[in-house]
Amino acid sequence: MDYIINATNDNKEVSLYVAKTTDMVETMRKYHNPTPVVSAAIGRSMTATSILGLSLKGEKNKITTIIKGTGDIGNITCVSDSTGNVKACATNYYVDIPLRESDGKLDVSTAVGKDGILTVIKDLGLKEPYVGHNKLFNGEIAQDYNAYLLESEQLASSVGLGVLVGEDYTINHAGGFIVSLMPFTSEETIATLEDNIKNIRSVTSMMSEGKTPEDIASIILKGLGCNILSTKEVKYNCDCSRQRMKTALETIGKDELIDIKQKDHRLEICCHFCDKKYLFDETQIDEILQNIC
Length: 293
Ligand code: ZN
Prior knowledge:
Layout: E1 2-8, E2 14-20, H1 22-32, H2 36-54, E3 62-69, E4 75-81, E5 86-90, H3 108-112, E6 116-123, E7 130-135, H4 142-153, E8 157-165, E9 171-181, H5 187-199, H6 203-208, H7 213-220, E10 227-234, H8 242-250, H9 254-264, E11 266-270, E12 277-281, H10 282-292
Antiparallel strand pairs: 1-2, 1-10, 2-9, 3-4, 3-6, 4-5, 6-7, 8-9, 11-12
Helix pairs in contact: 1-2, 8-10, 9-10
The protein binds zinc ion.
Zinc ion (ZN) binds at residues 238, 240, 271, 273-274, 276.
C-alpha cells in the first residue's frame, strides 16, 4: 500500500511530506511498459505530483505537472488532485540509453534532457487556473521541482525523489520527500535540517533497508522532534470515462469527425493514462457531431 505522511517539527516551522509510491509507479509501468530510465523519470515526477496534489487545500483542486525536456522522453505529464492519487503518461516510453558512467545509475537527466521547462498547472476552482513555468535545473526531476518551488512559489524547500528498478524492469522501490520551511523558521532549525539532509542516504537506499516513510521523516527531522499530522493512502488512479472522451472528441472539430466517419465508419480512442480503449460507431459519432452544432 502506498501512502504519504505529513509531519512537522516541535516548533511547527517545517512542513514535511514523505511518500511511499512503489505500487503506483509499478501500476504506471504495467500500463505503459517503459524502459527502466523512463520508469525512473516518470516515477519521480509522479511522486512529486502526488505530494503537491495532497498539499492542495480544496477538495476539487487539481494539479497537472508537465516536464518538457530536450531529451528523448519528450513530455512527462502527471495529474493529481487533493487526494494525492495520480495518473501519468509520457511521449516516448522506449528510451534506451547506457547507465551513467560516473556511478552506474540510470541516467535520468540525459533521458529527460538537462534543458527544458517544468510547467505546473493548479486548478484551484477559480476562473483561471494558476500556471507556473520554470526552467529545468538539471533534468534529474528532484532538483527541478526544488527550483520550481523556490522560484515560482517562493517556498524554500528540499526535494528528494527516487525509483529503484529491478533487473526484470519491475519497480522495487519508489518514494520521496518534500520538506518546506515556514517564513519564520529559525536559523538553528534551518542549520539542523540542512545538516540532516546533507547526511541522508537516497530515499530508495533507505527504503531498501526496510525504512518506512515514518522512519525517513524522523531521520530528516532528527533533533527537531517529529510529529506526524496525517497519513493518507494514495494510488494510481485514472478517471477517464466515455463521457470525458466524448467531450474531448467534440474539440477535434466537425470536419475531421465527418472525415473519420466517412473513411473508417468508426473511431477508436485510447486513454493516454491507462490505455483503456473507447469505441464509437457511426451512430455515436453522429451524436457527437450533433453536440458540436
Ligand atoms: Zn484512462
